[in-house]
Every structure is written in structure tokens, then in C-alpha cells.
Write a structure and sequence with these properties.
- This protein has 348 residues and is α+β, with helices and mostly antiparallel strands.
- It folds into two domains: 4-173, PH-domain like; 216-329, PH-domain like, CATH 2.30.29.
- Helix content is 22%, strand content 31%.
- It is built from seven helices and 15 strands.
- Helix 1 packs across helix 3.
- The termini are far apart.
- It comes from Piprites chloris.
- This is NISCH protein.
Length: 348
């Protein structure tokens, strides 16, 4: 252990996303190659001697208790647990996290020693995995609010690969079989299904972990929500969501020494007539079983919306992935020029 193919695969996956900032400690991890990466895992991260590192992925992550703080993490999947290697700056990002992270190394702040926090979710504690729309992200749920993490891969390939690896690792776990289902009578069975809302697609793994995928109704709900934001300008049957993608809105920071820019996570939705940017809650929905009240904010909050007919031009950057797009719209907003001209021309 491990095979040359696995070492090569993990080395290839150990690529930092160029558009996201990471600390020096995570840059060190990203610089490790081959057997050095495996040795680092066993010497610094692995909790038991006989666990194997199976997959590595760099992704932005959100925690249930701090839903507004998106942080970069190196996600390591082994045969025993999922490890989220975070940089130390995350601990200081929110003062309300003192109960979430037990800080003992505060004296290291001013030294040249760079600390990383490692959040561990044991596979035995895993209960369900919710896959987001179009595989742009997935949420891992354990037995409490401390054990809910969303990985914002923004990439269907990375999501699919991680889910496949996770299923393969879960197959190795020896769990007691779930009890036999109790036979329901006809009326209770019929009543439970007659709720008017279709449940999401569930795949219950042999390890009893649920893998939950969105169904068609979720797209329908999203289309209805988008139509509401359009103030009834479009009839709902003709509204089609052509594209749903997790992206960043680039805000240039003025007055700084370098030409820096901050990236604001947004959900971009394209319909046949409009372009929308939403602030989406990626971690609170669907509600976990232990949640006693709904989240404080809606799943989708409209940040910006423009009509395609007002789009003047699209500027494309020449850099490699991730690609930067600039949409330039006409200054005239919320005015249907053709309609106004017609009224002026033919009206009294």
C-alpha cells in the first residue's frame, strides 16, 4: 500500500484552485507530491494506523453553524473518515465560533509556525449526503449540527468523483443490517403518499447512508420563484431555466495597492428572457431532522436581475479555467422601449 496508480491519482488531484486564496499552511500541503503526500497524511492527519487514503479534493466548504463563512479546504477521504483541512484564519473569521473550535494554540499566532485546523467526520457517523442541483455542490450530514458540511465544488465532475469514491469506501464498512420494515396497511400507505409533493430521489446505500438527489419538482419550484421575481412579465409555462451554475461575482477593490478583486459567491440562473444572480443558502436546505425552526433566510434571495434584451455585449477573458465573463447591459432599466414608443406614436 498504496498502489502507484492511486499515488499518481492523488498527486494529480492535489491542485490548488488559482482563483481562491489559501494560507501558507495549505500551500505547503498543495506542494506535496507522491509518497510525500501519503506520508504527510499518515504522520499528521490519520487517526488510526491501518486506514488508507483513497481520495483528495480541493473545495470551498460551508459549516452549518457558520453559514456565511465560505472557506477553502483540502478534503481527504480515507477508509475511516472524511478530513477537512482548513487554514487557521477560518477560526478567527467569526468570533461566535469559540464553542465550535476548541482553540489551544493561540500562542502560535505571531510565530513563523502556520497552523491548520482539521475537522473530522467519521464515516460511522455519516447519515446522509444531499447532492445539489446539477451536481454543483453536495452536503454531508452527520448526527448533529456540528457535523453538517457543504462542499461547493462548483464542478459536476468533482462532485461525481467524490460521491463514487465515498460509496466505494462506505461499502467496506461493517454495519449491522437495518431492521425489517414494518408492513403498513393500505390506508396509511396511501395517506402517506398523497401529500401532493413528490419526495426527492433517495438511494439507500448498503452502509445505510442515504444519498439524496433533487427531483424535477425542485426545478419547477425554482422556475416559479424566478417567475415571481420577474413581476409577472412572463407567463410561467413558457419559462425555461436554461442554465444553473454556482459562480462568483467579481467586485473590484478600489484604492488598494494592487488591482485586487473580491469574489462574492452567487448562483447564476439563465432563462430564455432574463439573467439572474441569487444569494443561495447551500447548507440549511433541506432541513436536517434535528432542526427545530426554519432557517432565518430563504433558500434563494434575488441579488440582481437583467433582461436579455437589454444585454449589449459579453466580454470574455483569455485566461484558462475559471473563465471570466463580463456582461454589459444598456443603462435604461425597467423600461420596455418598444411598448413606450408604440404608445407615444399611436396614442392620443
Amino acid at each position: 500500500y498504496p498502489s502507484e496508480f492511486l499515488v499518481q491519482k492523488i498527486t494529480e488531484d492535489n491542485q490548488l484552485p488559482v482563483h481562491l486564496h489559501v494560507s501558507l499552511s495549505l500551500q505547503y500541503v498543495a506542494g506535496l507530491k507522491g509518497s510525500g503526500l501519503v506520508e504527510f497524511f499518515h504522520g499528521n492527519i490519520a487517526e488510526v494506523e491501518n486506514e488508507e487514503l483513497r481520495h483528495l479534493m480541493w473545495s470551498s466548504v460551508l459549516f452549518y453553524k457558520t453559514p456565511n463563512v465560505e472557506v477553502m479546504a483540502c478534503v481527504l477521504l480515507s477508509t475511516k473518515a472524511i478530513y477537512f483541512l482548513l487554514d487557521d484564519s477560518y477560526v478567527h473569521a467569526d468570533e461566535h465560533q469559540s464553542d465550535f473550535w476548541n482553540k489551544e494554540n493561540s500562542d502560535c499566532e505571531n510565530s513563523s509556525f502556520h497552523l491548520s485546523c482539521c475537522f473530522v467526520l467519521k464515516l460511522n457517523d455519516l447519515q446522509s449526503v444531499n447532492v445539489g442541483l446539477f451536481d454543483q455542490y453536495f452536503r454531508i450530514t452527520g448526527h448533529s449540527a456540528d457535523h453538517i458540511v457543504t462542499c461547493l465544488t462548483r464542478d459536476s465532475y468533482n462532485t461525481h468523483t467524490f460521491i463514487q469514491q465515498l460509496m466505494a469506501v462506505l461499502s467496506l464498512l461493517a454495519r449491522t443490517p437495518s431492521p425489517e420494515p414494518v408492513d403498513k396497511d393500505f390506508y396509511s400507505e396511501f395517506g402517506s403518499k398523497n401529500t401532493g409533493k413528490m419526495e426527492n430521489y433517495e438511494l439507500i446505500h448498503s452502509s445505510r447512508v442515504k444519498f439524496i438527489y433533487p427531483n424535477e419538482e425542485e426545478i419547477g419550484d425554482l422556475a416559479f420563484l424566478v417567475a415571481e421575481k420577474m413581476d409577472g412579465l412572463t407567463n410561467l409555462p413558457s419559462l425555461n431555466i436554461l442554465l444553473y451554475v454556482l459562480a462568483f461575482q467579481v467586485n473590484h477593490v478600489e484604492g488598494s495597492a494592487q488591482n485586487t478583486s473580491s469574489l462574492q459567491p452567487k448562483t447564476l440562473i439563465l432563462t430564455s428572457s432574463d439573467l439572474f444572480l441569487f444569494d443561495e443558502d447551500y447548507i440549511s436546505y433541506p432541513l436536517p431532522e434535528f432542526a427545530k425552526e426554519p432557517p432565518k433566510r430563504d433558500k434563494y434571495q434575488l441579488a440582481d436581475g437583467r433582461r436579455i434584451r437589454d444585454l449589449d455585449r459579453v466580454l470574455m477573458g483569455y485566461q484558462t479555467y475559471p473563465q471570466a465573463l463580463t456582461f454589459v447591459f444598456d443603462d435604461v432599466q425597467d423600461q420596455d422601449l418598444m411598448q413606450n414608443l408604440t404608445l407615444d406614436h399611436f396614442g392620443e
